[in-house]
Amino acid sequence: MTNSTDPRPPDPTMPDIAIPAPPRVDPxxxxxxxxxxxxxxxxxxxxxxxxxLPPPAGGVAASGAPASRLGPxxxxxxxxxxxxxxxxxxxxxxxxxVAIPTGAQQEAHPxxxxxxxxxxxxxxxxxxxxxxxxxxxGFRVHPTDExxxxxxxxxxxxxxxxxxPPPNRAAIPISWRFTGEVQRAGLLGRVxxxxxxxxxxxxxxxxxxxQGVLDPTFxxxxxxxxxxxxLLDPLYSIDEDPSFRDFFHALDAVYRELDRDGQLRPxxxxxxxxxxxxxxxxxxxxxxxxxLTGLIEQDRKYPNMPRVVPRNAKAYFDxxxxxxxxxxxxxxxxxxxxxxxxxxxxxxASSAIGFKLNGNSIFDFRDFGNVEEVNGEAxxxxxxxxxxxxxxxxxxxxxxxxxxxR
Length: 406
Ligand SMILES: Nc1nc2c(ncn2[C@@H]2O[C@H](COP(=O)(O)OP(=O)(O)O)[C@@H](O)[C@H]2O)c(=O)[nH]1
Ligand SMILES: [Mg+2]
Known about the structure:
Layout: H1 86-89, H2 103-107, E1 109-117, H3 123-136, E2 140-143, H4 146-160, E3 172-186, E4 189-203, E5 209-210, E6 213-214, H5 216-224, E7 227-232, H6 243-260, E8 273-278, H7 284-290, E9 297-298, E10 306-307, H8 310-325, H9 330-339, E11 345-349, E12 371-374, E13 377-380, H10 390-405
Helix pairs in contact: 3-4, 6-9
């Protein structure tokens, strides 16, 4: 398949250059059994809100999609006496009866997740890429109300039109329902399992701590959630970034609150599952340095996308802390070690936008950077292909769900 978004014609005389010495990718190393990413220009999302897709080969970028159609899974409406309804209040007639929940509604459970990351670490872009990544994993995403729908469409449209989302000044609540299927290890081998969950989080600007006081909204989210996505920006000097210290303080505050309520684990740790995502994996200069570590592998399947497989992900995180961010990154490691159970922590090398592919839609180590500057603004060069964006969510969802069953 040729890629129409690359202005340069394919050069048949030049071989595709792979990253140096890629070791074998072991598909069984993926604990959540995520299916391979759909090929570029693949089947559109079958969700209730059609997502604007990356342009198909030979086509042009989709410019948008209706923002107001909501999903088929109805959110249960208020069930109490209709206080706003004077007739009901005076007892003249019964309020609308509420039917028993459908099987799907019973199955769906909210997965409330905290999203932490310093300003500019990539939170909004991560969320913009999430519906696209979900689609590539065969998941459908249903915003649960008009606001959630509009925000999702805005974010996704921006990214599909190859713009990064603008900085957000307020914390924006997100409530998106995910339905799909995953493969998981069962007693008799790998089994397919239907998964449905409601993702609730805040897309916050990032300054969670002001004058030493933790944002109360974020504090509430963190204390009541059982999952946390921590975005670590590998491009920002840790010395200038107070959010690493703030992260420690925030966890300490949550720890004390849960301790008061008797909600800590018997071993004294927080009960949360933690997905640590080192963002901007695609960044050109970072990537050229990181391939020298030997921790990056290349998918053997088309389009030979580079990734850090789960068994290397902790080492990649350590490398970023030690060799890219410097000594203060130890604060992040200390916080993770102090507050979380090691088995509940997983590391990811994430890229919301993915790598630019060559004219034959294959990764080429000569030219893979997917960001360019246009009129002083960063723009995405080619259709986004998120890397390790849905995986953290599936890890958290699986952990939280299993924990609930116990
Ligand atoms: N190379 C690269 N840059 C990214 C990526 N995600 C975000 N960025 C850059 O980081 C900036 C801040 O991202 P944003 O999502 O607004 O960060 P937030 O403040 O945490 O919400 C963007 O404007 C991009 O320049 C990514 O996946 N790859
Ligand atoms: Mg933002």
